[in-house]
Write a structure and sequence with these properties.
By secondary structure, the protein is an alpha/beta fold. Helix content is 25%, strand content 21%. The protein folds into two domains: 1-122 and 206-271, Rossmann fold; 128-203, no CATH class. The protein contains seven helices and ten strands.
Length: 289
């Protein structure tokens, strides 16, 4: 997919949580020639950062960052290793607090521990280079563990609904036939699909992926881009993909941001992900199968 690495307009400094009409690419929810008849989505953005600075100890990592993820869209964040991409993810996940500025998720400002607990129920996270481990566990059970802390825990066992949810996500990511296989026997691409299913089984509103193409060959990377497009179509999620590979990251995106020198700047996406209508998972011959 062709993409330009030139910087777009300067970072926005007038973002407001109630304004979700700023995107100007063809996936905007505003009525117009590219999107006739649809009402403007007035919901607050999935993610909004305004003037956020953060770091560790006395070391500044991100300085006065502004970032916007509208509902139902995807953004790519790319930059060299050590540029601050992981710090950005930690801010969004509520794992670290900003030195200054505000972080909002679905219109809620993330400030207290109660806010962070609320936040973690709404985000599915696929960490970088996640591996199955050494213990024997089936793919089905590994995905089911994604519901731990949300649907069941120490005193509450998974029920029929939990297991059905795990099966649906395995079907969505294309490895339903591997449900009873030992995780340690999976290929790199299959492991990544399992990790995505485990994040999705939490029924999140937002999906975050950290370096999702690590250890994948070219064909698996292409398949991953197609899978994320299908996931967004089926589940209507907002998606953030973080990668050091600019060309690959742009395959996933409606919008893009480049991280460099403690700042995050908008980057150009010349061919955003295609606009797709939602397709129910229960439709037998749907693209979600």
């Amino acid at each position: 997919m062709a993409a330009s690495s030139n910087l777009d307009s300067p970072r926005p400094n007038n973002l407001r949580s109630g304004d979700n009409s700023r995107p100007t690419n063809p996936r905007s929810n505003n009525p117009g020639p590219d999107n006739p008849g649809n009402a403007t989505d007035v919901r607050p953005p999935a993610i909004l950062l305004e003037g956020v600075s953060a770091g560790y100890g006395s070391q500044l990592v991100l300085d006065s960052v502004d970032l916007l993820l509208p509902r139902g869209q995807s953004i790519a964040v790319f930059g060299e290793n050590g540029a601050g991409k992981t710090t950005l993810l930690k801010l969004i996940l509520g794992l670290i607090k900003p030195w200054s500025g505000t972080v909002e998720v679905a219109g809620r400002r993330i400030e207290s521990e109660a806010d962070r607990r609320w936040l973690r129920q709404r985000i599915g996270y696929v960490p970088q280079g996640s591996i199955p481990g050494k213990l024997p566990i089936t793919v089905q059970d590994a995905v089911l563990l994604g519901r731990w802390g949300k649907a069941f825990s120490y005193l509450k066992r998974p029920n029929k609904h939990d297991r059905e949810a795990a099966s649906r996500m395995l079907e969505l990511v294309g490895i339903a036939d591997l449900g009873h296989k030992d995780c340690r026997e999976l290929s790199g691409g299959q492991i990544q699909r399992m990790n995505i299913a485990r994040a999705l089984v939490r029924e999140p509103e937002i999906l975050l992926l950290d370096e999702p193409s690590t250890y994948l060959d070219k064909s698996s990377q292409t398949a991953l881009a197609e899978l994320l497009c299908k996931i967004r179509q089926c589940l209507q999620l907002s998606i953030v993909v973080v990668s050091h590979d600019e060309a690959l990251a742009l395959k996933f995106a409606d919008k893009a941001y480049r991280v460099a020198g403690s700042v995050i700047e908008p980057a150009c996406v010349t061919e955003p992900m295609p606009a797709l209508d939602p397709v129910p998972l229960t439709e037998p011959e749907s693209v979600c199968r």
